[in-house]
Design goal:
heterodimer, A: about 375 residues, alpha+beta, 9-stranded antiparallel beta sheet, two-stranded antiparallel sheet, 8 helices, 11 strands, B: about 200 residues, mainly alpha, disordered C terminus
Chain lengths: ~375, ~200
């Protein structure tokens, strides 16, 4: 036999590695490449069995909380691949994650919208729907046309999606009535002139500071229902991501400002409203008893959505809106409902950014009778 | 052509850059390096595993890409395919495991159980696969001079051409031709007494 043919046969049983192993190896490599902290670690050592845990050599910030994050490239489909082994765990701190998110944001091309144009923002949202006798999680695909300078009438199209169950409550029969339909309406400007700290139009947002410390001051001064400035800043960071377009420099500044917030942690495997897995930075809002998360793509570190889950059932229940006529009758918040209260640890709110683009015009829809005011 | 370039500038979704472009862009966008990994990691890990077994292969694969990332500024951007570069780096790293490599070839030659493939076959199969000719071949590989073995196995297991092997090892293609011919002759000599027809093969590749 020809010695080269023989050589081709020798060890030909060796297979190429599987998708799970490659995804884990890629995530580990990119983690090492992109992280200045773990760069000196060079290579993760192999462990024989079970969870493979690699610790960062040193952390530059004492306050940084290290979480072990399973970085799985790609979307949910990756989770169903053949090998059942545990994913590789790569450590990443909230500071590192926000740094990478800032760098990723800066590398996005600036859209440069003109003031006469519109930002078209597509998203999926999930919010709880409450009535005295029913609760469910309402899901919607939204397309919104936002006037770049805030002076022109925009538009909103909503497509209800299959609702999800609110833990402990059956999905009410009427909850999926609208699935498959589309509702569109104009977004009138109403000649309103909101205060700067409530504005979300691009013309204003592009004037925000790009310095993280100054951005943090802006965020603390934004309008929201939170009494604590730290809570306000975190809420504002989410508000500025959602259905608005921040230029890359300002977006990066928001992420770097978030690094300066106390108590920021990393949450592995957060799922956005579109069902995409991601890595999140999270902060507990003690006042409301909830944890608010900003979710990033685990490979590109681009912002992809947000999520809120309840940590303190009593506080969260107190915040549940009371249907008309029941508020006064239910002084004890936890006892008012006809079913279980707010579930701890279950995401109740989530959003997913699908796309952001610029267009010259917004579609004209007939008014649904909603008036300014 | 110009049109597709403009699309790439704006979106990068419509057009997949070749290896050289990905490496060039990774200077400013390190994420682009993931593209090289996705393209080449699977066959590269198989090549490394065939040479030194699965235990060290994972680490060598990771070191290959990290070494490549650190050296990416020196990549010859006129070469659109990075395989020779990556296989050259991997082969250099494999040489740190030369004792493991030689020990495994010798173990297979002596026992008929190949430590490099044992993890991929169940125990019953490992002995069934024993093959006197392959054991002789393993023994012959263990005796080859390392530079001959590198050139030969880049050709046979790395699926590189002579020119690509030359680029991988940083030597002229004539040197590669000579090394591979001498390696093949050495193998034929070692296999010769059980496979005499092989001696009749000429040296041309």
């Amino acid at each position: 036999m020809h010695e080269l043919d023989l050589l081709h046969q020798l060890r030909s049983e060796v297979p190429e590695p599987g998708a799970d192993a490659l995804n884990a190896a890629e995530a580990r490599m990119m983690g090492t490449i992109l992280s200045p902290v773990s760069r000196t670690r060079k290579t993760a050592r192999r462990r024989p069995m079970g969870l493979r845990v690699v610790f960062a050599g040193s952390l530059t910030t004492a306050a940084a909380t290290v979480a072990l994050v399973a970085q799985v490239a790609g979307g949910p489909a990756q989770h169903s691949s053949s090998s059942p082994g545990n994913p590789e765990l790569t450590p990443i701190s909230a500071v590192e994650l926000l740094d990478r998110a800032a760098i990723a944001a800066e590398r996005r091309p600036e859209l440069h919208p003109r003031s006469s144009q519109f930002i078209v923002y597509k998203s999926v949202t999930m919010y709880p729907a409450y009535a005295s006798d029913r609760r469910y999680l309402s899901r919607t695909k939204r397309t919104v046309w936002l006037s770049v300078d805030g002076t022109r009438e925009g538009a909103l199209t909503q497509e209800p999606l299959q609702p999800k169950q609110y833990p402990g409550w059956p999905i009410p029969s009427g909850a999926n009535n609208g699935v498959g339909t589309t509702h569109s309406a104009p977004l009138p400007t109403c000649d309103r002139h909101p205060a700067d700290n409530a504005r979300t139009d691009y013309t204003y947002l592009r004037t925000l500071p790009t310095d993280p410390a100054r951005m943090l001051q802006v965020l603390k001064g934004r309008q929201s229902g939170d009494p604590s400035p730290e809570d306000r800043a975190w809420t504002a960071a989410g508000d500025l991501m959602r259905e608005s377009y921040l230029p890359p420099a300002q977006r990066a500044a928001v992420f770097r400002a978030a690094k300066l917030s106390p108590g920021v942690t990393v949450v592995q495997d957060a799922e956005d409203a579109a069902g995409r897995r991601g890595i999140a930075v999270a902060r507990v809002n003690d006042e409301q008893g909830v944890r608010d998360e900003l979710i990033f793509n685990p490979t590109t570190f681009l912002y992809q959505g947000e999520r809120m889950l309840v940590l303190d059932a009593a506080k969260a229940e107190a915040a549940v809106p009371r249907p008309v006529g029941t508020a006064k009758a239910a002084p004890d918040a936890a006892a008012h409902a006809d079913g279980p209260g707010v579930p701890v640890g279950t995401p109740l709110v989530s959003t997913a950014e699908l796309s952001v683009a610029v267009t010259d015009t917004a579609p004209k829809f007939p008014s649904t009778g909603k008036h300014c005011g | 052509m110009i049109e597709s370039d403009q699309v790439a500038d704006r979106g990068a979704h419509m057009h997949w850059p070749d290896d050289a472009e990905a490496i060039a862009r990774s200077t400013d966008e390190p994420e682009m390096f993931a593209l090289l990994f996705r393209r080449h990691a699977a066959p590269l890990q198989r090549y490394i595993t065939r040479r030194i077994g699965p235990d060290a292969a994972e680490d060598v694969l990771a070191d290959t890409f990290l070494t490549a990332f650190d050296a990416r500024a020196r990549y010859d951007l006129t070469r659109p395919d990075a395989r020779p570069w990556l296989y050259g780096i991997a082969t250099n790293l494999v040489s740190r495991h030369r004792r493991t490599e030689v020990r495994q070839f010798k173990l297979y030659a002596r026992t008929g159980v190949d430590p490099a493939v044992a993890a991929f076959t169940d125990h019953a199969d490992a002995r069934v696969g024993a093959d006197a000719v392959k054991q002789r071949l393993a023994a012959a590989l263990s005796r080859l001079r390392p530079v001959f073995r590198d050139a030969l196995l880049l050709l046979a297991w790395g699926d590189l051409t002579y020119e690509e092997v030359a680029a991988a090892l940083g030597v002229p293609v004539g040197t590669v031709r000579s090394r591979i011919n001498r390696a093949r002759k050495a193998l034929r000599d070692d296999l010769g007494d059980i496979n005499p027809t092989a001696i009749q093969e000429d040296f041309d590749a």
